[in-house]
Every structure is written in C-alpha cells, then in structure tokens.
C-alpha cells in the first residue's frame, strides 16, 4: 500500500459518485420529500422561482384558468425551438427565401413537419393569447392589484400578433407577399384622413408608418430583412422579457385572482392543513416589504399546497397537451406555400393573416377607422378597464359581478346579432359610397359599418352601466360584444369574401380572373 | 390529491401521444418516402444502388433538379440503372447531367414528391410539358431564324422525299435503314444539319462518289439534282435543327396569320393579347369552366384554338378553320413561347441572332410574310374570310381587283391601314418593314398571276359633274356603299386612305368592270338586273366620290 494507490482509489470513488454530485450541485436540495425541501427546490431554481413556493388550490382547478396562459407560453416555446431549427436552412432574401422554403419542405429531413409545427404553434399562440385575455377579463382578474399585469398582457398580445405577422412574410410566396402588402396599406391608413384634410404633403404619419414597416415603397428585400430581424430577434426578446415580468408579477400580485369567499367555495380536501406547521422559513421582516396582503395571518383553513409537485404537474400537463395538439395538426395539415411572390400578379382577393381579417373587413370602407381608429379605441378601452372598474364584487369568478352570466349571454347575442345585421345590410344594400358616389371620404370615415357597430356596442354598454349601476356590467357587455363582432367580421372576412372583396357563399362560386 | 392525479394522467397521456406522433412523423418523413422506395428497387449492374437523394445542380441556370432521385437512370453516371420506370434519356445535345431536367421539361425540380415534381399541384405555375409537346421546351432558349410558311416548308420537304435522300441519310428518326440488297446508312444523319452545316460542294461530291461506288443505293436512289431542287433541299436542310415538330409548328403559325392580331417578341398586331410568353401561362389561373378534359395548358390552348369564343367569353378571335394537325401545331407553338433568364454564356446562337441581331423567326419571302401577318383575316390564299359576327374580310387575291389596283394602292393600304376598320396600319412598330410590304404585293401579283395595271393617266383626271354623280350614286350605289359612302355591306368609299391612295382609273375601271365573286357588278355592261352606266355617268360618280376625299 502506498499513497499512489490510495489516490487512485479515491479517484475511482469520486468517479463513481460524480453523477450524483453533478445532480446535487445543479439542484442543491436533493430529491424534495418534505414541504420544506420542496420549497427550497422552488426558490432555489432560477426558472421555478418565478412561481410562489405554495399554490392555492383554487388556482389548480381546471376551470379557474383552463391553462390558457401556460398554453400560450408553451406555444411560444414550441415556436422558439422549431423556429431556431428552421433558421438553419432559411435564407432571408427574396426568391432565395422561397427556394429555401421549398428545400425545407422537400429535402430537409422532417423539415416540412417542423415547419408545420411552427405554423400551428404560431396560430395556437394567437388563439390562446386571445382566449387567455378573455379568461382574465371574465374572471375580473385585471382588478387591483393586477392592473399593471393586465397592461403587460396587452403588450404581449400586441407582440404576439407582431410575431405572427412578421413571420407571415418570410416564405416569400404570393400569400405572404400580398398579405403583407395589405398589412402595410393598413399601416398607411392615416393617409385617408390627412388626404381628406389635404395635409399629407406636410404631415404624413401613415406614409411614415408604412415606410418604417417596409423600409421601402414596396414590399421587397428591405421589408424581408426587416421582418426577419423583427421575427427572429427583436420581438422574441421583447416577448421573453415581458413574459418574465408577466409571470413574476403574478406572484408579486398575490397569485391568481380568487373569489373573496374562496374558502367557502372550496370543499375541504385531504392533504390540506395549516401552513407553517414546520419551523417557518419566512421572517416577518421580509413580509413587511411585500405589497398586498401578506400570507396566512388570521385566515381560516390553509388552502395552499406546495407548488412542487402540484402546480408543476399541472403546468407540464398543459405544456405537453399543447405540444400534442400542434404536432397532431402538423401531421395532418401542411402549412401553405403558394407560388413565388410576384409583384406583377396581385392575388385577388389578397387577404391579410386571419386575425387581421376582421380589420380588413372594416378597412374596405374606411382604412383609417378599420386599421387605426377602432383598434386604437379598443386598445385604449381595454387598457383603461382596470382603472375604471374599481368594484370588488365577482373577482375571481367566471362572469363575476353585477349581471353575471345572463348578462354575458344576452351581450353575446346582441354582439353577434348586430355584427351579422350590419354585415348583412352592407352586403345587401352597400354603403354610402354606393348611394352617393361623390360623398366626401371624411363622412365615410366618420360613418361606416365599423363606427356604427362600435356606436351600437358603446350605447348598449352605457345602458348596462345605468341599468346595473355598475361599470363592471358595462365592461362585461362591451367586451362580450366586441368579441362577438370580432368573431363575425373575422369569419366573414375569412370564408365569405372573394375577388374584389365581394361576398360569396363559398369559394367554389368565385369567378376566375 | 385528486387534481394532482388528474394532471399526472393528463401529462402521461399527452406525453405518450406526443411520442407516438413523433415516431409516426419520423417514419413518415424519413422512411416512407416515395423516392426511397423507388430507389430500393433499382439495380445497377445487378447490384442495388445506394439509396440517397440524387440531384443535378447547375448554379448558373439556377437549377437544382431532384428528378433523378426517382428517374435514377437519368442521373449522371447511372445511365445503366434498371428497375421499374427506369429509362435512359434519349441521346440529345444537352446532357441532363449538366442542364438538369426542368430547364427543358418544366416542372418543379426541387420537389421530391411525384405530383409536386411534375407540377400538377396547386400553386406551381409551371407543370411539366406533356411528352408529346416536349419540343416546346426548346423554345425556352432557342429561336429559329427564317422559317417559311407551312406550304413552302412542305414543298421543300416533298422535294427531299422525292429525291430519295432518305435512302442513305437518316433524318428526324426516319430513313437510312439497312437494305436487303446491301448498303444503306451510307450518309451521315441529317437531323442537326442546320446547326452543324455541310459541305458546300455536296452535289459534286455525290456525283464523284456515285461514279466510283457500286453500293445499291448509289445505283437505285441517286441521280443528279436540278438547280431548283438543290436550292429547295439546301433551304430545307437549314431548318433541320433537331426540333422537327417545333419547326413544323412554327411554319404552321407563320401560315395562319396569327401575327395579324398577336405580338410575339415585339412583332405583330395588337388586337389580341401579346403571346411572347404565352407558354408560361399558369394553368392554375386559366379559366377551365368551358374546357372539357384535363386542366392542362396544352388542352386549354387546343380547345381555345378550335373555338376561341366558347373558351374565352367575348373573345374577338374568329374560329379559324384548322385541321387537327394544324391545331396541334399551333398548340405546340404556343406552349413553346416561354423564357428562362439564362446567363449570356448559355444563350444559344440562334436566340442571339433573333434577339440581338434583328433576324426574324419567319422567312422574308412574300408568301411567308403574307401567311404570318395577313392570312388570319384575308385567308391563306388571300380570298377573304367570312365569319359569323364579324365584318367580311375582303378578298385581296381577287384577280379583278388586282387587275385594276395599282401597286401603290396596295402598299399604301398596307402601310397606312384603313382607319376605323379592322385593317390596321402596318407601320414599323408592328415589325412589318417596307421590304415586306413590297414582297407581299409581289406575292399577291404572282399568286393571282395578275400583273400591275398599266395606267398612263395621272392619279386624278376625272372631270365629271359631281351633282349628277350624286344623283346617280344615290340611285345605283348607295344601297350597298351607304348614302355617304360609309360602307354598309360593301367597302367604305369615304375612307381617307382609300381616297388618298386610289387613282381615278381604279375607281372608274372597278365601276365599269365590277369585281367577280363579290356583289360588285360591272355597270358598263348592259344587263336586265342593274342600270347600265355610260363612261360619262361613271366619271360623274367618281367625281362625286372624290368630294369625300381630301385633295392630295
């Protein structure tokens, strides 16, 4: 026996223990068995510590959120991964871009499948982000102290639409080219007003917007490079930063919104017990600087469970479900790729991405109102809701507040019916331009189907505020109406508009040329 | 806890689901590929070939053709591969290993699925050319200078046949066969002789050889060729550029007068659409509502050529009375009107001559120029055309007309047209040159065997009484020519170009002698069915007609 062989023995022993030690070094807590080790597991991890250590049982009910926020995040992560894979082959230059799409489709192993997943996840993200916003609204979760998170959520909605829209151009096919042309024209729509006022020469915000978007007068290589940069770098970074804040704020704002009488609503269940039965880790010094209601002092039965594993299994389940949905859709439905973009052969009808078709439906009458005016009013209105609705009744409940579910049902009916009525009217009878060909555009800008619909909704909402003596009731009605209107306009724009934006029951009836 | 269990089950189910989907996708996208299965059955010298994606890449032409992933036997170095659907490429000048496939055949070279590759899918504007129209692909790059109209080309071809040149020479896949009495295959293949050229003293060389050689064909098939036949044969050889169907289709096009309404590469009229790139039309954007059969461009052109108005509503194009073979020819020609941007080094000489040195694809003789520009309306033989719904196109080959019409009237009418009528001015921007107009006039004279009239009188010599002429005109002429000479059933007499170009003698003689085959009778002859006019009457009428014209 000498020192050398001893060192070798130690070396072998260390080698044997290395995997366990690597795991221990990474996770620090070992396998979490007790509530205490579960807690340290969560706040000792840079990703998990965005969650609170314990989660309220109310938040874990499927009906509370339907997992929509996590589904949105999942869709984002899926697009992130598949997007990075696509970037290995994609060449952001006109014509070459199209050829690289063809190569991805035909030659890159599973390239088509990955592109399909990317496309479906992107669409799923738009859908879930809208549904997530609706969930937040209908459960009145935007109320204090979560007002600012509501605003961040709106920013994320805008970034999501931006991500999807910028990705639309990248295949550089006819569909992409003309959809972006339409989008750029919507950006230019303030010209309608400046033209009518005759000040476009000196004051042209519309032209500037379009120029900033395209980097040129037409959709070309500048626009493609610009969209590419926005799509793969700028917007994902912004989205990631905003998401981090969004999630962190959930914790800081006291978790998900809960009804005031949540304890009564939640039946007692096995496994709930007063918290802090073990030695409390939290000092009240720290609690003193946390805003809002501080934990578990003077409350009834403790309803929280450790986030690890309860919350994380729920989140993982939603994540995998989203992956499953996107993968399944990707297997059965290919992402579209039309002919190479050709500026000389306009698509007719040229349609924007589906989530903008509601706006395009309005743009047909007034580009300014459809493209800027009404969206701006809607966004400002949405942003102001948490600051106008300072009521308390109904927080954390679906369709909570005065009026409740019957009001939402009636509002949905009114929202859908008036949008369908307005659409039916303009399809059957036309609008001012058809009746008075010489009418000034400013009149149509002020009075068009979009503004009429908005006025109907606003009037109905005001009536609700008086009827129920509640801002929340008005907001519930207005939000529902706008959702209904968005749905009707989008469906009409997607399925019932053909060449020259004329109405057709089916694409089979479209005339050629 | 119940909710934890539910979430765990959900996680398990969706994870397993994702796993299954990924495995399915991996198999489908990597293993079950059509071309892998095709290649698995291919044998090269009895051995299986390695299964991998094959392609022909030509950066200069912008070609990346994966067609050879299935058509392995057309891949470079694997021409001897055998297997289902494996066939080697016919021996052509352009090696597919260099040019790829799509440059000639169309289709989607980057695709690796059959329907996508053959281009018969939505959103691919350039499907493969059907095999019978393969030569249309030549038109992508190649032009041919100096193709005559069909009748002329057929004449040359007939001379070539009559002289029995094919006894020894193979051409376009025919002739030069081994004969039972020995010999055959004596001469070189003439399929590409228009490109490669031949000995200028070929005739003398044949005579010398015939004297020395005793092989059978020299005795039975060869005899010396007359000067005129030799000229025909030599002109025929110049058109043999390895694309016989396309050359023949072009000659039909130049006999059918399509250029009267359509422009091709800047030459032609503009009543109809410009056809310069008609062969690139995207079948996905064509209207097949009234087209029976396949949704192919081929079929669309075929039916449109037969009955234009039923395929394109409101079309002004008359239904030309064409034989099936002519329809096939015109379809092939239209399909050949395609272009690909190729670098100068790939631009063939024939295209260079046509696009850079102002040579024309059609021959410049009168018959061909008339066939190319005029035959559509005036008929191939110049005898005019009556079609439903359009004004009658006059017979310009009418001997009675040519006997009284001076050459200046013909050429001025061609040069300046008939304002207000279908006959346009054939000015320089239509590609018709002054020499062409002279050639057309000469052709009409030769074809109708009617020389130009000899007229010693000045253009304006009639001194009749316009007032008396007006009364006579109203009674005798206005019924057909209209009270103001605006032309009803008969031609308009107040047309400024006619007034300027026609001589008084032309008017007087036409009225006196009439024009057989039309409603115009000779008014100087006595007849029970029309009034007889004296020379003085006729001159009065001409004086009256002249009141509509501007003085020259």
Poorly predicted spans of chain B: none
Q: What ranges of chain A have pLDDT less than 50 throughout 5 or more consecutive residues?
A: 275-281, 296-300
Q: Topology as H/E string of chain A?
A: HHEHHHHHHHHHHHHEHHHHHHHH
Which CATH C-level class of the largest domain in chain A is it?
Mainly Alpha
- CATH architecture descriptor name of the largest domain in chain A: Up-down Bundle
The CATH superfamily of the largest domain in chain A bears the name Cytochrome Bc1 Complex, Chain C
Helix content of chain B: 40-55%
Could you say what the CATH architecture of the largest domain in chain B is?
Orthogonal Bundle
State the helix count of chain A: 22
> Biggest sheet of chain A: strands, sense, closure?
2 strands, antiparallel
**CATH fold node name of the largest domain in chain A:** Cytochrome Bc1 Complex, Chain C
User: Largest sheet of chain A, order of strands side by side?
Assistant: 1-2
Structural commentary:
- The complex is a heterodimer of chains A (513) and B (552).
- By secondary structure, chain A is mainly α.
- Chain A has helices at residues 3-27, 35-43, 57-60, 62-65, 68-87, 96-106, 111-138, 147-169, 174-187, 190-197, 205-214, 221-252, 262-265, 284-289, 307-332, 357-363, 367-388, 404-429, 432-435, 441-446, 449-468, 471-495; strands spanning 54-56, 304-306.
- Chain A has a two-stranded antiparallel ribbon with strand order 1-2.
- The N and C termini of chain A lie far apart (94 Å).
- In chain A, 41% of the residues are buried.
- Chain B has helices spanning 2-30, 34-40, 96-99, 102-105, 114-118, 150-162, 193-196, 202-212, 216-220, 227-238, 244-253, 297-306, 308-311, 324-335, 349-356, 366-373, 375-378, 399-404, 407-416, 434-448, 466-476, 478-481, 496-501, 504-513, 535-546, and strands at 43-44, 47-48, 56-58, 63-65, 263-264, 267-268.
- In chain B, the strands form three sheets. A two-stranded antiparallel ribbon of chain B has the order 1-2. In chain B, strands 3-4 form a two-stranded antiparallel ribbon. A two-stranded antiparallel ribbon of chain B has the order 5-6.
- The mean pLDDT of chain B is 89.
- Classes of the chains: A mainly alpha (513), B mainly alpha (552).
